[in-house]
Amino acid sequence: MRIKISFILLLATIVLLATPIAFAGVGSLRIEPPLPIKSKSPATFEIWALSETAYFPHILLILPESCYIGLTGDTVVSWSGASSPLTIKKSDWIGPKDDNSLKLPLSASPGYNLATLQSHIPTSDPIYFVFEPILEVPITSSKETITITLQSTDPEMLVYILGKQTEESTYYDIRVPPTIPGFVVPEMPLGTLMGLASMLAALIIMLKKPMPSI
């Protein structure tokens, strides 16, 4: 019975994390897939607003130092629009940043804590970032598609979207929650996928077994 209850609690936690919750302002933008993922590059994401319009949308990209050092070409963000693509050269990345109390980007409110960003990669090394405008229109409930190409010998990147609650806002005060970033890395190795499949199969077998009475 304890095993069954523990599994139910774990499943409920996963569902809650994966379910979009509407918050005004901070945290009301979304990237889909909705949970941190490891995707091959180029990676495609859908972005939208849950509860309000996000004006002047910007993309925040985060690299650990190892990925920055290993950059072999431009990082490219593309979408359907006249100003696409956004091409980021190695010299455009800002860093290294290693002050754990620092909030990124600097023009956001309240921004993402650097230590939190490091924990999502995860790394304790300095990070590099860029914060640039994308799209030609505000982000609404209609989904927009962006594609990101990352070229590095050690590719790893966090992807966040920010905007302004009003056209007159001083800060980028509407954003993707810090716990639900996009995550771009190479395709997951086959061995890792097989290991995950084995773990899932073992869990299914365990759940099919009769539960001991208490």
Question: Could you explain the architecture of this structure?
Answer:
There is one protein chain. This protein has one domain (2-191). The protein is built from four helices and 13 strands. The chain has helices spanning 2-18, 65-69, 114-120, 190-208, and strands at 29-32, 43-49, 55-64, 75-79, 86-88, 94-97, 103-104, 112-113, 127-133, 144-149, 157-164, 174-175, 182-184. A hairpin with a 6-residue loop joins strand 4 (75-79) and strand 5. It is globular, with a radius of gyration of 19 Å. It starts with a helix and ends in a 6-residue tail after the last helix.
How many separate domains make up the residues? 1
Number of helices: 4
Unreliable runs: 1-25, 188-197
Shape descriptor: globular
Give the proportion of residues in helices.
10-25%
Give the amount of beta strand, in percent: 25-35%
* Secondary-structure content class: alpha+beta
Mean pLDDT: 79
Largest sheet: 6 strands, antiparallel
Distance between the termini: 7 Å
Helix and strand sequence: HEEEHEEEEEHEEEEEH
Strand runs, count: 13
| Gyration radius, in Å | 19 Å
List keywords for this structure.
214 residues, five-stranded antiparallel sheet, 22% helix, 4 helices, alpha+beta, 29% strand, disordered N terminus, six-stranded antiparallel sheet, single chain, 13 strands, globular
In a few lines, what is going on in this structure?
The protein has 214 residues and is α+β, with helices and mostly antiparallel strands.
List the helices and strands and how they pair.
Blueprint (H helix, E strand, L loop, with lengths): L1 H17 L10 E4 L10 E7 L5 E10 H5 L5 E5 L6 E3 L5 E4 L5 E2 L7 E2 H7 L6 E7 L10 E6 L7 E8 L9 E2 L6 E3 L5 H19 L6
Antiparallel strand pairs: 1-2, 2-10, 3-9, 3-11, 4-5, 4-10, 6-9, 7-8, 11-12, 11-13
